[in-house]
Design goal:
The two termini are 25 Å apart. A 7-stranded mixed β-sheet has the order 11-10-9-12-13-15-14, covered by helices on one side. The radius of gyration is 22 Å and the shape is globular. Helices cover 33% and strands 17% of the residues. It has 363 residues and is α/β, with parallel strands linked by helices. It has 2 domains: 158 residues, NAD(P)-binding Rossmann-like Domain (Rossmann fold, 3-Layer(aba) Sandwich); 182 residues, 3-Layer(aba) Sandwich (Rossmann fold). Helix 1 runs parallel beside helix 11. Helix 4 links the parallel strand 4 and strand 5. The longest helix is centred in the middle third of the chain and has 20 residues. The mean pLDDT is 97. The chain binds nicotinamide-adenine-dinucleotide.
Amino acid sequence: MKLGIPKETLGGERRVATTPEVAKKLVGKGFEVLLEPGAGVAAHYTDDDYAAVGVQLAERAACFEADIVLKVRRPGDDEAAALRAGAIYISLLESCGDDPLVARMLEKGVRVMGMERMPRISRAQSMDALSSQSNIAGYRAVIEAASQYGRFFPMMMTSAGSAKPARLVVLGAGVAGLQAIATARRLGADVYAYDVRPETKEQIQSLGAKPIELDLGESGAGEGGYAKELSDEAKARQQELLAKELAKAHVIITTALIPCRPAPELITADVVQRMREGSVIVDLAAANGGNCKLTRPDQVVVEHGVTIVGHTNYPSMVPADASAFYAKNLSNLLEIMVDQTEAGPVLKDLAEDEITKAMLVQA
Ligand SMILES: NC(=O)c1ccc[n+]([C@@H]2O[C@H](COP(=O)([O-])OP(=O)(O)OC[C@H]3O[C@@H](n4cnc5c(N)ncnc54)[C@H](O)[C@@H]3O)[C@@H](O)[C@H]2O)c1
């Protein structure tokens, strides 16, 4: 069974869908792994590293003709056209609801599996790319904030003077938010965090941060561990109650998302204006509209003396480890997709396993 790994072409993407370490295991399990030359270079994996573990360097077109094509990012039009009927295509699809490109792939007879459709059950944790990549984003967002901030994160006492710790607020305490809290604590910041799901309180405390609790009159807990959208009344109340806490912050990392909805606006322009000169906001929700009113996707802007960072692809800024985690997610998924036989791996019925069934996009 052939696995095709083409080079990612979407703007600035540095990740790759497999690493030499993971490819070695796949080859050991009887897969033929075809990789487009240079596919791993931006993530610091050379063609020689892959060739040394038995990967075949192949033309881009040959990678797209494989039995299973593995990618990180959503396919482009030309990529979708290059797939053959009967093939399986797996990547993040980065779409919600109607997706004409995916519909065309299905019409052609390609089976499409979206990594973000992974069910949130314990058995699927090792295959969950949203979690593995969010973890990296949470870490990298704090590093970004620290480098943009003109002061120290930790308390500093030196012979030349002392500095107070930064007051840092994390909004949204899911996978990215909890990693942001842990990273900011390691750097010595004084960390506060808020999430609309009440069960996050204990998780925030266990990482040494202080939970911000607001009485919104309703719970934001939705299905499958995700948040649900609040009523307009609760949204307004949330903005109002949060404003006092946020205006005191020196650094804010925002990670609040609701599946298939625009990101909730938690930081108003008025709050930004009230923050201390030199403060920093890193908005991890920038690609989904932003948690801050003044965020500009893919830009770093300064508004009222506050630096607002709107990068939209943090995992790609840690490309070696992000690729390694993603590759591991994929190889764990492949393990449940095939039976190992003497003749090599044989595809199972994907509709039979609850994980692969949930990942398959239906026509
Ligand atoms: N396999 C599994 O069991 C599995 C896998 C991944 C995640 N999870 C759980 O799912 C939960 C959420 O995961 P995620 O981080 O991917 O979610 P996410 O990326 O969709 O959202 C990030 C966070 O934003 C919060 N949020 C949304 N609206 C908000 C608002 N108005 N104000 C404040 N916060 C708001 C959400 O509650 C969430 O914690 C976590 O508890 C995680 O542990 C379980």
